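Q: What does the assembly look like in three dimensions?
Context provided by user:
Components: two
Sequences:
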Amino acid sequence: MCQITIKADSLKKIYSSTKALNNFSLEVRKGEFVALLGANGAGKSTFIRIALGLESPEAPPEGGNSEIFSIPSISLQPSDLQKIGYISSDMSPVPWAPVCDIADFYASIYHKWDVQLFENYIRQWSLLKNKKLKDLSKGQRRLSEFALVLSYHPELLILDEPFDGLDAVNRINLQKILKELQKKTQVTILYTTHVLEEVHKLADRLVIIREGKKVYDQPLKESTESIEVIFRKHYGMAL
Amino acid sequence: MRNKNIYISGTFFFLKNLWFAPSVNFYYILFGIVLLILKGGQDLKHHDILLSMFLLCFSSYGMGRTICDKSGMILSCFRMLPIRTEHLIRLFALSALLYSATIQTVLTAVLGLSLGLPFIGNAHITFTQSQDGEIMSIASGYITDLSGRIEIPYHKILEPSLFFGIVKTPAGYPVFPFWWLILPVLCASLTFYFISSHHIAPVLQRNNHPVVWNFILLSIIALLITGLIVDSFSDSKMVWALRSLLDIHLWIIPALFGSLSLLVILLLLYYYRPIFRGAEVIK
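A: Here is the predicted structure of the complete assembly.
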């Protein structure tokens, strides 16, 4: 039986009068690479934040439940967080510190920190590890975040629009690394995007979210239509 | 004049709290200069200094900008780290202490307190709790000027049980004992109180303009030096050096940095003695 890494059941979240999530359910199995696709404001980031316990859904029982590694998201412990890598468009780990200092700090708190791997990424991407994150370009900053997160060998990677700000070369390199990583280590990856073109290269499964509702959920290999056609259909756009 | 100063004080603190960033120090410079010009060393009141120094003990700036957003919630990047909230709070509370002990002691004492002005430190310390009762953040509270406004927006900051560190969260973790933040600042503050009241204040009372300008000069130099030292520490190295807190006894860090702060202040005073002597001769 497949292990379930992320499980969300009937999640509801309302901001003011807007339903950010409306009975949203999703299961991500171990080793899967799932793309969560949706327009801006569709509820992608809200789902991720709730799944990680960074936000709460509406009060129970209406709000639904979410779990990671079969543990309620709100109760994730440091030992569980050791296994989760999270990269978000609006979140950088300690931007005022140099990358090498953050790496030292991570080395002291992540049991599986791999200094060699981190140094490899630094070299491979020509990162400026002595500079503060906030002083780096957007692309360098994002790559540094990837280097930091990948170096502690997470079992689950949650990436919220992870390729924003990257140039084409780094974007392609990083996508290749993630795909190889998934094959080699069976890491589970859930990532959100609104870029249709990259989905088919990366994901095993496509989930489309619209106005907080899941409107499509299929493995990509079972789909006979292009992602653009699927997306247009479910967003009510002319084909 | 006093009311006027209080309004100015309130305005600057308001702006400062809005800003919520390291550049807030510039408000201290502006504030200090404005107050120096307004008061010019007159009407020194020792009880003002003492009260200010006492309140300064509750000061701890830096934490808010370090780990929390403006609503007082711990930033996502920290909440995703695999360390307990309790450790996180200690880690950054103590980095804030250094910031507070040096910047605020030097600036408030040199610029404001020795002139007997209604100008004191502030505290960005507040405890909020998550749904399951775990301590989630310390931020956004402040205790501010002598106009009587003492605000503690959330709760419990001065509750005796919390103050003495005997509260435990439902998960069984002891709440960070608040007094850890106070002791080194108290030592630095009291020392500076005696220095300023016995050496600086009498000079200021006797001399107006030359001392005012010398004082502005001294203040700017002090600000630059301590600002450089503290910012370089608090921005990165010091914060990360404190990670060892997870392994060593807590008291070492505040004691170390409290002493360092005091040393910086005393060195500054020692090297700039000629300025005050010069001022006395001018009269």
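Follow-up: The mean pLDDT of chain B is 43.
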